[in-house]
Every structure is written in structure tokens, then in C-alpha cells.
Amino acid sequence: MSAAGPARDAEGRVALISGASRGIGLEVARALQAAGWQLSLGLRQQVLPPGLASDAHLAPHDAERGDEAAWVAAAVAHFGRIDAVVCSAGVMIPGGIVDLPDADLQRMWEVNVRAPRRLVAAAWPELCATGARARAAVDRQGAVGGRVLILGSLSGLRVKSAGSAGYAMTKHAVVALGHGLRQAGHAKGIRTTVVCPGFVDTDMARAITDFPPEQMTRAADVARLARIALELPDTAALATLPISCQLEDIY
Ligand SMILES: NC(=O)c1ccc[n+]([C@@H]2O[C@H](COP(=O)([O-])OP(=O)(O)OC[C@H]3O[C@@H](n4cnc5c(N)ncnc54)[C@H](OP(=O)(O)O)[C@@H]3O)[C@@H](O)[C@H]2O)c1
């Protein structure tokens, strides 16, 4: 490490992050900003989240309003490029799979699945441009092109209870979305990772389980892994990234 501190390899790269007001999204924002990324945050409240430098770009975003294209346009007008899209906004509404009101499933579907797809679709031309620039600038092996990182869940890989099955339906769909984006982006220099944690110590997990918070994965550790996935070259892509604080039967 130099006297100036850790290397800021990502200097100038631009990431859009949803769900950065708190929880995992906020930790990813902090980790990326510390590494030299420029941020555009889509937020329901236009308030700079705690611990972030004021040069972050803020844009209105409510996943239930379908305003992703306007956010992307504002970010491109501000920065002139998009290198990564991080989808962390999400909701978990517990309820037995037989009795779960359809409106609850619809809300989870909108926020967890449809909004990330719309956001990535709106940013796709910019991500393709980033992929093309990266390949023109450096050798193919070291190129770091466009990146998509979506918060899935271990609930996207297995179903542990009837009470979380509605949420698990949406997170299985997120994993499928990630695989589809990997297929669509491969030749264009875009790599997609679906991060799949178990319990992470945030408002969401504390609201739904008695599992001790101090034994949960820390959001900052998820963010460290997310940063690695975003910064590895195209030739070292991570498709899914399961992370657990408990013993799991399957991954
Ligand atoms: N915590 C866990 O144990 C865990 C485990 C596996 C996966 N995940 C996933 O990780 C992601 C982040 O979860 P978290 O634990 O950080 O949750 P969290 O602490 O509850 O934060 C949720 C974030 O999503 C945003 N959000 C919710 N509804 C929104 C909407 N309609 N439009 C825009 N933003 C909205 C919230 O914004 P406001 O502040 O405006 O409400 C907040 O920034 C989610 O996709 C979640 O499913 C979490």
C-alpha cells in the first residue's frame, strides 16, 4: 500500500445503486465510494444516506412507480456513463404460501423482480458502451466491462419454510433474471452476479426472525464481496454468490 492509502482502482467508474438508504445497499455504496467509484443513488427520500460523501448523485426512485428510465437518464446526464448497476432495494413480506394475500406477492414481485429488470434494461445501452470501451482499451483478459449485481438470497436457491415461500418465489425469479442477463451480456462485455445471502444484520432480517443479530452476516461483509464481483475482470465472472452465517444443506 502506498503512503496515499489503498489503491482506488475504480477511479471514475459510475455505479447506480437502488436500496442505498440503509442495509446492504448502503454498505455497498460506502464500499464503492471508498474505492473511488462515483455513485448515483435511486432513493424514495432525496436525503444523502449516512456516511457517504456529498458528491453522490441522488435521483428519485420508487420501485413501485416504475421510474427507472428517468433515473438512468438523470445519471447519464450527470456522469455521461454507467459502468455498473447494483439492485439492492427489496421487500420481504412474510405469510403462509397458501394464505399470502395476492397483493403482498404482487408488491414483492414488483420491487424484487420487475424493478431490477427494468433498471438494468434502461441502463443496458450504457453498460454495452462500457463493455466495448473496456475491450478497446485493455487486453481482453484484463478488461472490466459493464457490471450488474443483484441482491438475490439463499431463498432464491432453496425454500426453507412455507412462511417465506412467497418471498422465495421472487428470489428464485431473481436468480433466473441473473442467468438471463448473463446470457444476454456475455458477448457485450457485461457480467452479472446474483448475491445470495442468508440472514444479514439489517432491518429486514431483524423484523422476520429471532435468530441472534450478532450471529448474522454483517452487511459490510456482503459489500466487500459485492465490490470484488464488480471489480474482477470479465474473465473471472461470478454468477451466483451464496453467503451464509448458518450451516446449509445445499447451495
Ligand atoms: N437482510 C437479509 O437477511 C437479506 C438476506 C438475503 C437477501 N436480502 C436482500 O438484500 C436486499 C437488501 O436488503 P436489506 O437487508 O438491506 O433490506 P433493508 O435494510 O430492509 O433495506 C431495504 C432497502 O430497499 C429499499 N426499498 C424498499 N422498497 C422500495 C421501493 N418500493 N422502492 C425503492 N426502494 C425500496 C429501502 O428503501 P427505504 O429506506 O426508502 O424504505 C431500503 O433502502 C434485498 O433485496 C433483500 O431481499 C436481504
CATH C-level name: Alpha Beta
**CATH homologous superfamily assignment:** NAD(P)-binding Rossmann-like Domain
CATH architecture: 3-Layer(aba) Sandwich
Total number of strands: 7
**How much helix, percentage-wise, in residues?**
25-40%
Radius of gyration from CA coordinates: 17 Å
Structure annotation, total helices: 6
User: How many independent structural domains?
Assistant: 1
Look at the structure and give the mean pLDDT. 94
Small-molecule components bound: NADP nicotinamide-adenine-dinucleotide phosphate
Strand order of the largest sheet: 3-2-1-4-5-6-7
CATH-derived topology: Rossmann fold
Largest sheet: 7 strands, parallel
Calculate the terminal CA-CA distance, rounded to whole Å.
36 Å
Please write the string of helix (H) and strand (E) elements: EHEEHEHEHEHHE
**SS-based structural class?**
alpha/beta
Strand content: 5-15%
Using the alpha-carbon principal axes, give the shape. globular
* Unreliable parts: 1-8
